[in-house]
UniProtKB/TrEMBL annotation, chains A, B, C, D:
HAMAP family the UniProt entry points to: NAD_kinase (MF_00361)
Domain of life: Eukaryota
Organism: Lophiotrema nucula
InterPro entries membership: ATP-NAD_kinase_N, ATP-NAD_kinase_PpnK-typ_C, NAD/diacylglycerol_kinase_sf, NADK
Molecular function as annotated in GO: ATP binding; NAD+ kinase activity
Record-given protein name: ATP-NAD kinase-like domain-containing protein
GO biological process: NAD+ metabolic process; NADP+ biosynthetic process
Family to which the UniProt record says this protein belongs: Belongs to the NAD kinase family.
Classification via Pfam families: NAD_kinase, NAD_kinase_C
Entry keywords, A to Z: ATP-binding, Kinase, NAD, NADP, Nucleotide-binding, Transferase
Amino acid sequence: MRLLVSCRILPWRRDFSSTARRRVIRDISELPDRVRPSYVQRPTNTLLSLQWPSPPRNILITKKKRTPGITNSLIEYSTHLSTTYPSINVIVEPESADEIHERVSFPVYTYQRPEHGNASPEHLSDKTDLVCTLGGDGTILRASSLFSHATSVPPILSFAMGTIGFLGEWKFKEYKRAFREVYMSGASDAYAKLEDPEVDHRSFPPASPDDPLDKPLSYADIRGKTMGANRTARILLRNRLKVGVFGPDGSRMNSLPESGDTYALNEVIIHRGSSPHLKIIDVFVGGRFLTEAVADGVIISSPTGSTAYSLSSGGSIVHPLVPSLLLTPICPRSLSFRPLVLPAETPITLRLGEKNRGREVEVSIDGKRISEKIGVGMEVRVLGENVKSEDGEWCGGVPSIVRGVNGLEDKEDDHWVGGLNALLKFNYPFGDQDSGH
Amino acid sequence: MRLLVSCRILPWRRDFSSTARRRVIRDISELPDRVRPSYVQRPTNTLLSLQWPSPPRNILITKKKRTPGITNSLIEYSTHLSTTYPSINVIVEPESADEIHERVSFPVYTYQRPEHGNASPEHLSDKTDLVCTLGGDGTILRASSLFSHATSVPPILSFAMGTIGFLGEWKFKEYKRAFREVYMSGASDAYAKLEDPEVDHRSFPPASPDDPLDKPLSYADIRGKTMGANRTARILLRNRLKVGVFGPDGSRMNSLPESGDTYALNEVIIHRGSSPHLKIIDVFVGGRFLTEAVADGVIISSPTGSTAYSLSSGGSIVHPLVPSLLLTPICPRSLSFRPLVLPAETPITLRLGEKNRGREVEVSIDGKRISEKIGVGMEVRVLGENVKSEDGEWCGGVPSIVRGVNGLEDKEDDHWVGGLNALLKFNYPFGDQDSGH
Amino acid sequence: MRLLVSCRILPWRRDFSSTARRRVIRDISELPDRVRPSYVQRPTNTLLSLQWPSPPRNILITKKKRTPGITNSLIEYSTHLSTTYPSINVIVEPESADEIHERVSFPVYTYQRPEHGNASPEHLSDKTDLVCTLGGDGTILRASSLFSHATSVPPILSFAMGTIGFLGEWKFKEYKRAFREVYMSGASDAYAKLEDPEVDHRSFPPASPDDPLDKPLSYADIRGKTMGANRTARILLRNRLKVGVFGPDGSRMNSLPESGDTYALNEVIIHRGSSPHLKIIDVFVGGRFLTEAVADGVIISSPTGSTAYSLSSGGSIVHPLVPSLLLTPICPRSLSFRPLVLPAETPITLRLGEKNRGREVEVSIDGKRISEKIGVGMEVRVLGENVKSEDGEWCGGVPSIVRGVNGLEDKEDDHWVGGLNALLKFNYPFGDQDSGH
Amino acid sequence: MRLLVSCRILPWRRDFSSTARRRVIRDISELPDRVRPSYVQRPTNTLLSLQWPSPPRNILITKKKRTPGITNSLIEYSTHLSTTYPSINVIVEPESADEIHERVSFPVYTYQRPEHGNASPEHLSDKTDLVCTLGGDGTILRASSLFSHATSVPPILSFAMGTIGFLGEWKFKEYKRAFREVYMSGASDAYAKLEDPEVDHRSFPPASPDDPLDKPLSYADIRGKTMGANRTARILLRNRLKVGVFGPDGSRMNSLPESGDTYALNEVIIHRGSSPHLKIIDVFVGGRFLTEAVADGVIISSPTGSTAYSLSSGGSIVHPLVPSLLLTPICPRSLSFRPLVLPAETPITLRLGEKNRGREVEVSIDGKRISEKIGVGMEVRVLGENVKSEDGEWCGGVPSIVRGVNGLEDKEDDHWVGGLNALLKFNYPFGDQDSGH
Ligand SMILES: NC(=O)C1=CN([C@@H]2O[C@H](COP(=O)(O)OP(=O)(O)OC[C@H]3O[C@@H](n4cnc5c(N)ncnc54)[C@H](O)[C@@H]3O)[C@@H](O)[C@H]2O)C=CC1
Ligand SMILES: NC(=O)C1=CN([C@@H]2O[C@H](COP(=O)(O)OP(=O)(O)OC[C@H]3O[C@@H](n4cnc5c(N)ncnc54)[C@H](O)[C@@H]3O)[C@@H](O)[C@H]2O)C=CC1
Ligand SMILES: NC(=O)C1=CN([C@@H]2O[C@H](COP(=O)(O)OP(=O)(O)OC[C@H]3O[C@@H](n4cnc5c(N)ncnc54)[C@H](O)[C@@H]3O)[C@@H](O)[C@H]2O)C=CC1
Ligand SMILES: NC(=O)C1=CN([C@@H]2O[C@H](COP(=O)(O)OP(=O)(O)OC[C@H]3O[C@@H](n4cnc5c(N)ncnc54)[C@H](O)[C@@H]3O)[C@@H](O)[C@H]2O)C=CC1
C-alpha cells in the first residue's frame, strides 16, 4: 500500500539539488552495521552501565499513533539529533517517513513493512544502534515488538508525551540532556563540546568514496568537554518471554516458521475473547501437568509485565530484576487459583483442550492479538529469556535506559520505587489529604 | 426453519387415531391459563412455602443442549408426569418438541421461537405453571431467560444431569419424589393416592365440549393419601436485575422497545470482548457519578450471581436473600477498585464514554451475548428487582425450589451452606487428607 | 479514682455565688428525661428524616483522647450551645467534666464511670437526647460504645478534628450551622431567630419550683425565622451487631449478666492476639456448621464496619443500608476462604474448639479488647440488629446524622460515595496527575 | 533445670558395664568434626545433587513436641540408624536425651541448651552432618532455628508424622529407604551391602586409643552393593533471610551481640500482637523510603515462606528457587497495598515510628516470638541469603532433601507441584466430585 521511496530503487533522486537530496526516504539496508554496546555491572549497583565502543549512529525513533502534535515532536527531536550529532542517521517507521521526509532537511531511513503480520522488519535489528520512543508504554511495547524475533535488542530511550507511563522514564522536554548522556555513555577517551557554538556542525556527512558511514566513529573524533568516564547511562535489562504458539498439528502460528519464537516484553495471554463462555486450559510447568484452568484466560508474564495485565488480574508486583515468570489466571472459576511466580528458566505450556465449546480464542502478545484462527488443540509454549550468557556477559533482554546516571545514584530516585508510588499509587494512604471535601 | 405443527394450524391432525392424535405438537396458546401459586413466609424460616391454589397443570420442561442421552431423560420424565398426573400438559422447547413428539404417547405443547433474538416467546409466561429443567446451571439460566421479560416467573424445579451445579438442587434419579412434593405443595384439603395401582390413570383428559382444561383442577379431585398441610416445597425467591441497554441515541438495544427491560438472574456485564485493549466505563450509582472503571469490564450481579462470574473476578459471596446488587470490576487497572455491595434498590448505570478506542464491546446477560453492535455512547442501566410488594406479598424474582420440605428443616441440610462446601470448596482445608501422596 | 462532684452529693455548692454555682459538675440523673425523635422515610430518599417532637435539651459531647487543643474545642462548642440555646444541658464524660467545669460558665453534667469495664454508664441512655463527637472514627466508636447495652441510641452528630474519618461528616468549623440544622430538624410550627442579637439569650434556665426542665420545650417557645418543614437533618440508620460472648460453662463474658448482649457498630473479632500461632475457630451459620477457620482470626462485621477491619482483611465494601452481616477471615490458612455477606437476621456463632494450643485469644468489639481471660471453649454469638419494628417504625441502630439536608439532595454529594472516593481512594486512577515526577 | 549427663562431666559412668555404658548422654563436643557435603548442579535439573566426601556420621534427630507416640518413633528410628550404620552417632535435643537414653542400647549425644533464648546451641553446627526431623513443618522450622546463627546448615531429611506438611517430604514408614539414599548419596567408589545379614553390624565403634571417630569413614569401608554414582539425593537449597532486630539505640535485640544476624527459613513479621490497634511501619527498600504501612503488620518472607503466613495474607506463591524476598502486608488499611516480590539481594528495613500508640509489638521469626520488649524506634533489617558463592559454589541456605533420586526424575513427581495440588489444594476444581451430596 505504502510505496517505499528507497534510494536504491529510485536512484534518480540522487541527482537532485542538495536540498531535494535530503528530502528522501532511504532504505535501512544502506546504513552501516549496528554498533553493539556492552553492559557492565558495578558491584554497588543492580543496574548496568551502558558502554558504547564507538558513538551510536543509527537511531530509530518511533512515535505514538493517532496523537495530535506528535509528528511535530518527532520532527523537532530528529532535527535536534541530526543537527547536533552530524554523524547520526535517523530511522523512522514507514508511516512516519511518509509524514516527515518532506519537512526535514536530512534524509530519513526506513524499512519495508513485512507482509506477514507477525514477522519482523528485515535488517532492522542489524542496523539499529539505539531506539527512541515518543509516547507511552504502548509505544515502547510496539518498538520492542519490532525486535520480537531478535535475540539482541538495541537500548531503548523513552520519552513520555503527556502522562508518564510505567515503562517510560523521561519527559519530552528533557530530551537534549537525556540523549547526550546516552550518546556519551561510557566514552572514556575524549568528548564532544557538544553545545559549543564554535563547533562546525555538519548537517550531513559527505558522501565521499570512502564514506565515513563504513568505518566506526570514534569518541576521539568528537571535540569537546570531558563528561567523566564514570557517568554512564543506567540500564535496566528487562528479560523477555520466548513464546511459541503451535496449532494442533504442531505448526507454528505466531510467526513464519523460519523466524522461530517471538519475544514478549510484558506477557502472552490466552483469553475467551469474544466468546461469552469460560475456557478450559491445561497448564504444564517444567514438562509436568500442573492444573486445569477454567477461567476467562491465563497470563504468562515477565516481571516487567507484572505491573501490566497481571496486576489487574490480581498478580503480585515483581521487581524486573527478579529472574522469574508469573502465571496469573484471569477470572478463574476456582477460589484457590492463587497467582504463581516461577523461576525464569521454567518452561510453561498452555494447552487448549477438547473440552472447550467455543471455536476461537484470543491469543495476544503484549496487547497485540495474533490474528490467525486459533482454537482447540492449540498450545502456547513459554520460556523466560536468559540475560546472562555462559561466560557471565549480559545479553538479550530489552535494555531500557532509566533515569539517573551511574555514579550519581545517591542524588537520584529509585526509578521503580518512584513508579510504584507516583504512578501505580501503591499503598495510597486513606484520608482527606488531597480532597477539597 | 422449524415448522410448528400446531393443532390450530393443522386441524386435520385431530382426525387421526387416538394413538396418532397424541403424537402431535400443539401450540401453548391452547392451554388453560396459568395457575399462580402464592409464597408464604413462616416466622421460623427464611425460605418461603409454595402454596398452589389448585394443582399445577402446564409444565414446561427444558433440557441441556448437546448432551448425549438427555433426550431419553426428557422422554422418561415427561412420560412419568403425563402418566402419573393425567391432568398435566407437557410443554417443551421447539427443538425438543421436534425430537420427542413422535416418541411419546401424549401431545407435547410448544411455542413459536421469537424472531428477534432477545424477545420472549409469546404466551409462555401466561401459560406455564411450573418449569422443570434437566441439566446444569446453564440450563436454569436459559429457562429463566425464557421469562426475561415477565414480572412473574413460574417456580423452577431443577434436576442435575451429571454434576450438580450451584443453582440446581435435585439429582435426576430423585425426580418422582421431588415432583410429587412440588405438585402437592400446600394442598390442605385432600391428596392423591398417587402411586396406588387401583387408581385409574387416565392417560389424557377427555376432549369434551366442557373441556376440563378450562376449569381449574382441585386437590379434592385427586384421590389419595394425605401428605400433611405443613409439608410444603421450599422456595428461595431469587431477586433478579432489571436491565436496560441503550444506544447513544437513547434507543433500547437489548429488546424490542415494547418488551421493556430484560431481567437477569445472574448478572449483566460490559467487557472488552474481542478487543485486546482496556475499556473505560463510567459508573453512576444512585444517579451520581461514582468512578471511571478502566478495566477488562464491569459486572453488575445479583446476589445469586455472586457465585458466578463475580466470584471469579474477586467478588464476595453474597447470600441470595441479602437484598443487594454487586458491582465487581473485571481486571481493573487500579489497585484500589474493591468490589462493592449496594442496596438492591440503587439504580446503577454503566456508560461507555468517548475515550474508548475499540468500536465494539461485549454486553452479556447471564452469559448470553447481546448481538447488536454496541459501542461508544452506550449505556447499561440496572436496578434490583423488588420481590416484596407494597402490601407485603412476595412477587417477582425466580422462585427456585430448593431441597428439603418446610416443616422438616431440622433433618435437612441448608442448601446454600451445602453448596458452598460441597461445590465451591469454600475454605477447603489444607493437608493430605484425600491425596494418595 | 475520679471523684464525681455531683450536686446531689455535694449540695453546699448550691450556696455559692451564681458564677461559682455554674462551675459545678452535676449528675445526669438530675436531667429531664430524654426526648425521643422519630425517623421518617420519604419515598424518594433512602436516608431518613430526623423529626424532634420538641427541641432536644440534653446534649452529650465526647472528645478524642490525648489530642492537644481538643479541650479548647470542647469548651468553645459547649459554650456556643449553652449560650445560643439556653435550654440546653451539656453532658460530658467524667474526665472532660474535671477538665472543663472550672473554665465554663454553666454547669456540666456527667455520669459515674461504671465499675465493670464493659458495663454502660447508668442513666446515660435515658437522659441523652443527642450525642456530639469531636474527633475521628475512634471517637464515634467510643461514643457509640457508651450505648452498647441500649436498644435506642440517640442521634449522633460528628465533627472531625483534623482529618475527616469515614464515619464522621462535618468539619469542626461548620459546627454552628450543623447543630442548628439538627436542633431544628422537623420542627414544623415555629422557629428561633437564632442568631438575632435582640433575642434575650438566657444563659441558664431559672431553677424555679416548676423547673422548666420537667416539661418539654416546644418549638413554639423558640422565637425566630422559619426554616421550612422539609429541611430536616438526614439520618443514616446504621444497624449494629448484637454480640454475646460466652465462656465454656455458658456464662456471659462480655458484660454483666443483667446487661445482656453488647451492641457493636463496626465488628466483633476473635484473633490470635499475642500468640504467634494460628487459631482454629468453628463457624456456625443459622445454627448449622459452616466451616472450620484456621486463621489469625475471624471478623463478623456490620455493613458499617465493612470499611474498617474487614476491608483490610479483604472484605468487600458493603453499603450501610444493605441489611447484612459480613464474615471475613483474617489471614486464613486456606486459599478458598472468600469473605461472605449474609442476611442481617442470620445468627452466627464462632466457637474456639479444643484443638487450639494457646490458652488465650483476643476478642475485641469495635477495637476495644474484652479483658477477661478468654480461651478454649469460648463462643461468640452474633445477630444483626433489626432496625425496623413489626409495625414498620424505624428503631434501634445508630442514627448517624449525615451531610446535607433532606429536601436539598440534588445540591449535595452522596456522603457515602464521597467517602469512598475522597477518603478510601476507591479506584484511585493510575498515572502521574499529582506527582511532580 | 535439666541436668546434662555428659561423659566428661560424670566420668564414673565410664566404669559401668558395657550395657550401662551405652545408656549415657554424651556431649556433642566429643564428636568428630562435621563432614561437609557438596552440592552439584546437573544441567538438566534445577535441583542439586548431594555429594558426601565420606559417609555422614553425626546425625541430629529432632521430634515434634507434645505428640503421643512420637518418642517411640524416635527410638525406632535411632535404633535403626545405630544398628544398620554402626559408625553413626545419634544426636538428640536435651529433652529427648532425657527421655530416651535409658531405653536405647547406644549412647545419645546432646548439647547444652543456651541460656539466652535466641542464642544457638554451642558446637551443634560444627558437629552435625545431617538433620532428621520427625514431625511437621513446625518441627523443620524448629530444627532449622537450631542453626539460625550458622552460615552452613547440614542437609535436612524430614519425616511426616501424621499429616504431611509442605516442607516435609517422606512418610515415616519410608525411613529405611529414604535414609539409605541420603547416606549413600554421591558415593562413587564402593557401597555397603547394607541389608546383607552376613555383615557384622557392630553396635558401637570401639573406643580404642586411635578412635575411628577421629578419622573420616570411607565408602570403601562399607562393604556391599553399588548403588550407582548417579543415584544421588536431590537437594532443594532454600535460601533464608538474614534478620537483624535493633532497638532505638541501635543495639541488637534478636540475639547476643556476638552472634550477629539470625537466619529465618520462612519469614520475619512485625505485628500489632496483643494491642487492638493498627501499627504504623515505615518500609525502606534498598536504602530508600518505599511506603508507610498502616496495618496489623508486615511480613518479609523468603520464597519458602511464600506458602506460609504470606500466603494467608494474600501473597503470591513463589517457587523456592526464585531468588527473591516477599514484602506482604497483614491487613493493611489501604486498598492499594499489593504484595511485592523483590530481588533477594535487596536490603529491606522496617521501622516502627513515633506515631505508634501501643508500647509493644510482636516480632516473630519463623513463628517464634522474640521475647524482649520491642517498641517505638525499633528496626527490623532483612537481606536475602546468597546461596551461590563468588566462585559458583553452592553454600548457605537450608539444604532440604526432597523426594526422588537424581537420575530417576522421569519416574518421580515434582515435589513442589505435588505439594501445591495435594496439600494447598491449589486451584481446586468446583463441583461435586467428592461430595456425597
Ligand atoms: N485489563 C487489563 O489490565 C488489560 C491490560 N492490557 C495490557 O496492555 C498492554 C498493551 O498496552 P497498550 O497497547 O497500550 O494497551 P491499552 O491501551 O489497553 O493500555 C494498557 C495500559 O497498560 C499500561 N502498561 C502497559 N505495560 C505496562 C507495564 N509493563 N507496567 C505498567 N503499566 C503498563 C499502559 O500504560 C496503559 O495504561 C498489554 O501488554 C497488557 O499488559 C491489555 C488488556 C487488558
Ligand atoms: N470467568 C468466569 O467465571 C465466567 C463466568 N461466566 C458465567 O457463566 C454464566 C453462564 O453460564 P453458562 O452459559 O453455563 O456458561 P459456561 O459454560 O461458561 O459456564 C459457567 C459456569 O458457571 C456456573 N454458574 C452459572 N451460574 C452460577 C451461579 N449463579 N452460581 C454458581 N455457579 C454458576 C456454571 O455451573 C458453569 O460451571 C454467566 O451468567 C456467568 O456468570 C461466563 C463467562 C466467564
Ligand atoms: N488492620 C486493621 O485494619 C485494623 C482495624 N481496626 C479497626 O479499628 C476500629 C477501632 O478504631 P480505633 O479505636 O480508632 O482504632 P485505630 O487507631 O486502630 O484506627 C482504626 C482506623 O480505622 C478507621 N475506621 C474505624 N471505623 C471505620 C469505619 N467504619 N469505616 C472506615 N474506617 C473506619 C479509623 O478512622 C482509623 O483510621 C475497629 O473497629 C476496627 O475496625 C482495628 C485493628 C486493626
Ligand atoms: N495466619 C497464618 O497463616 C499464620 C501463619 N503462621 C506460620 O506458621 C509458621 C510457624 O509454624 P508453626 O510453629 O508450626 O505454627 P502453627 O502451629 O501456627 O502452624 C503453621 C502452619 O503453617 C504451615 N507451614 C509452616 N511453614 C510452611 C511453609 N513454608 N509452607 C507451607 N506451610 C507452612 C504448617 O504446616 C502449619 O500448618 C510461621 O513461620 C508462619 O509462617 C504463623 C501465624 C499465623
